[in-house]
Amino acid sequence: MKLIFKEQGTSGVFGISRSDPGLKGVGIRQDGTLNTIVCNLGAGQMVTIDEVPYPFPQNSILPLVANQHFSFERPEELLAWQFNRDFYCIADHDAEVGCVGFLFYGVHHPLFILQEDRELELIRSLEQMCVVEMGIRDRMQGEMLRILLKRLIISITRSAKNQTGMREEPEEKFDLIRMFNLLLEQYFREQHEVKFYAAALNRSPKTLTNVFARFRYPSPSTVIHRRIIQEAKRYLFYTDKSAKEIAYLLGFASPAHFSRYFKQHTGKSASIYKMVCE
Questions:
Q1: What is the mean pLDDT of residues 66-72?
Q2: What residue spans define the domains of the chain?
Q3: Predicted structure pTM score
């Protein structure tokens, strides 16, 4: 089963699928890719994200964003919801769902969210309601599907907070980390220093570092470095761009600076990494 809704008057796309052998993400290779929420109701299997394999446990959910490359060992055993920014922008609606910078674009990556029995019942119920709504063609269809998607995201976010122990932490400090992660996703290609993000959040770099330490997260500078290197690897692995082109795309003053940075954080030169990918 694979059902797709395309919104009239916009470029909004929403889909739900079960047992789709073509379920995968090609991220940086093409435009118009989708955010994806995958539920594994069957036996555990492997998922490969940006060329790194991870165990995908039974009865768990995995949120994935549009710029990630992913494939599954047995995609035909999975349930998935997919949507693009034009259908539902998680950043613009963060006040409603509170997931940006945690469920999506968070420090914990990948985030496998184990589901209890009552949560699995809700997942199956939302699946059935989405399938029914897909068959109703009227002017309210898009809004109804957005409501169901929103309900799914809120439920998963609550589960993830419980699983990671975040529900007991002060919401204000937790939101500070989420907003940092969202800003990083917007600006990591141009801004490589903690002081930029701290200023945008009206905090000092030391305050940010202390908040990250409270949640036992890597330091803000480490998170920035990881995001830049992650994107560099995607370009090297999935495109034919040269190290020089990537250097300028990621905001480095010169290819030499990028080369030193890449080797410092990976132990390999960008050119050698490119050769290994090929």
A1: 91
A2: 2-167, 171-277
A3: 0.90
